[in-house]
Amino acid sequence: MSSPKTILVFDVDGTLTAARQGITAEMREFLAETRKRVPLAVVGGSDFKKITEQLAGHDRDLLLSSFDYVFSENGLLGFKGTDAFPVQSIQKAIGDEKLQELINFALRYMSEIRLPKKRGNFVEFRNGMINLSPIGRSCSQEERMEFVKFDSENGIRLKFAEELKKNFGKCGLQFAIGGQISVDVFPTGWDKTFCLQYFENDYDVIHFFGDKTAPGGNDHEIFADERTIGHTVEGPEDTRKQVEAVLNAI
């Protein structure tokens, strides 16, 4: 009997890289060696520019040549090799009126949160989602880590996501805690499972590796999906160890 066709799918932040940091040369080499044995895909919640920066130092061609599939914004913008899949649009899905209502609510809510610090870029509009950051995405790395600690102690993003769900959950929207400093808002079903449609029929086994796999995290849906075998990782080094275990079992 021939071996089942297997693909490995990876989250970015906290899985292939430290949060918002670039990939190490060691991890890049490890993935290149792994790809000689099995195809690789990457699916991040960030936009394509950020993923390219983290995984390929702003080199688009290097990124697309390093993986068999590359998906940003949960798969709403994606590539097989250099061939692009259709781009999805949140404003077309829910309409500008509801979108403005959501943004206005989020800005009011965030304006009333007391944090150690606030910076700028609280709302980031992407193709298929809205990214909401209580501290602001223009914070420094030091300020980011200060917020991470404050958030873990006070549940800032969890409470924010719950309020969003209470007010907009019936509008066909989902809310997920993304990365370290934000909440992602996207149409129902546009979580990371969205990317599976582009390759699920070509493989017998799909392994997914991610760090935010608990309910409410932006890796949870694809981690728990019946089409995947989910692996919870605690950082790039743990990802490497778990991939090695999977490869040894093939």
Automatic annotation (TrEMBL):
Enzyme class: isomerase
SUPFAM superfamilies linked to this entry: HAD-like
Entry GO MF terms: metal ion binding; phosphomannomutase activity
Active site as annotated: 11, 13
Pathway: Nucleotide-sugar biosynthesis; GDP-alpha-D-mannose biosynthesis; alpha-D-mannose 1-phosphate from D-fructose 6-phosphate: step 2/2
Residues of the signal peptide: none
PANTHER family listed in its UniProt record: PHOSPHOMANNOMUTASE (PTHR10466)
NCBIfam families found in the cross-reference section: HAD-SF-IIB
Family: Belongs to the eukaryotic PMM family.
Listed name of the protein: Phosphomannomutase
The organism of origin for this protein: Caenorhabditis briggsae
Top-level taxonomy: Eukaryota, Metazoa, Ecdysozoa, Nematoda, Chromadorea
